[in-house]
Amino acid sequence: MLLTACSGGGDADAEAEAGLRGCEEVFGAAGVSKVRAVVGDNKFRGVSTPWSSIARAMLKEARQYDPDGEDWTRSRHEPCELSANGIELRRILEVHVKWSVLTMDTLETGASKVERTEVAQDVYIERQNENRTITAILPCKVSGTAPEQRSALPLEVIAYTSSETGAEGDSLAATLLPSLVRNTQKHLGCEKPVAVPEVLLP
């Protein structure tokens, strides 16, 4: 992971630049600017993990997936976290990507106890207000995996905002999520990626 530093020069400045560049690869420069406008400039910093590292780990996990097995463990990866205002009152936007423990059949039949909405063909959205998360779930078949992987091991992309960001944070997460999903599809090399609409929430 690359962590920006709050103050100092030399190595600290280099780390700060590297961290923000990493987050720009996730959200784009305009996206990072939007986050900064919401969370504020005070001690604005970021943590980022290179897409190459995330893709390598997730592809390995998908290729080791056994459709007849009972392994429900899924690794969770954080491409970027942006925050401001120091430790006491941190205003945060962070995103995670992972393979889902759900299957597309579960989503399509509504067998799960959690309510999810199909906003486009094969694209489901789960919003948990109490946890301040928005999750997109969709199929992503990657090379070198079992044929069942597309439906049995969907992709999850999760955006979280801290309560300090308020309604602006909620709106920001919803705005950035579509491009984040498409970016994840690209870096994982999803075969025949499903179309993700520009707006995932009403």
Task: Explain this structure.
The chain is of the alpha+beta class. Helix content is 37%, strand content 23%. The protein is built from five helices and eight strands; from the N terminus they run βαβαββαβββαβα. An eight-stranded antiparallel sheet has the order 1-2-3-4-8-7-6-5. It is globular, with a radius of gyration of 17 Å. The two termini are 34 Å apart. The N terminus is likely disordered.
Helices and strands in order:
Elements: E1 2-3, H1 11-39, E2 45-48, H2 51-63, E3 76-84, E4 91-99, H3 104-109, E5 117-120, E6 123-128, E7 133-138, H4 149-152, E8 155-161, H5 166-188
Antiparallel strand pairs: 1-2, 2-3, 3-4, 4-8, 5-6, 6-7, 7-8
**Helix amount, in percent?**
25-40%
Mean pLDDT: 87
| Element-level helix/strand string | EHEHEEHEEEHEH
What coarse outline follows from CA principal-axis ratios?
Answer: globular
* Adjacency order of strands in the biggest sheet: 1-2-3-4-8-7-6-5
How many strands? Answer: 8
Number of helices: 5
- Estimate what percentage of residues fall within beta strands: 15-25%
Structural class: alpha+beta
Distance between the termini: 34 Å
Calculate Rg over CA atoms: 17 Å
Q: Tell me which oligomeric state these chains represent.
A: single chain
Largest sheet: 8 strands, antiparallel
Low-confidence spans:
3-8
